[in-house]
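Translate sequence into structure tokens.
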Amino acid sequence: MATLHHYPFCPHSRFVRLIFGELGVELSMVEEKPWERRTEFLMLNPAGLVPVLVDEHGLVVPGATVIAEYLDEARAGGLDAMRRLMPQTVADRVEVRRLMEWFHQKFFEEVSGYLVTEKIYKRFMGADAGGGPPDMSAIRAARNNVRYHLKYIGFLAAKRNWLAGAQLTYADLAAAAHLSCADYLGDVPWDEDETAKAWYARIKSRPSFRTLLNDRVPGMAPAAHYADLDF
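Result follows.
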């Protein structure tokens, strides 16, 4: 069985968990607090970042996008076309990769990275690692930035069945993983885009999402609607 080194509220880790849920593949998980820079973990990934996948043969695969590409190459050959998370044509695959980069980099740098760091990570980090009170200016920036990302998701969802095209892909899982962290914290203004909200409700209702909805930050309850499938 493959092992995932992850942190529950790391959006990149959540993305990989969603992939395994969609593929129906069992996964062993080890929680890592990346700010602790545990020696054994740094031996797996000197960058000190989660997620890191260690497959059944001991191959170490670091990073959300690298893991997604690895799984598409190593696992998808045994799956029927309806369960593939990368489309068949080159043009469609380019679009999925474009949107994965949008959410894993742009959305993370402008929204989810700020929110999880300031509201969650810094609660548990020591002062020497940068812990302490949240930077409210960073949180305000994230809350402002999430609005145009939500509009972009609504724009895509209005034109297509799923964000990248006709089928569910890595693009949807990336967007949902990052949004789910912001949603836990109550920082997604769902009333500003009903199309984006309807898309998120569809993906939130999938079985692969159940474990994410059960995650809790110690001492911090989720937004009231977080686990509500009909929000």
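Note: The chain has a mean pLDDT of 95.
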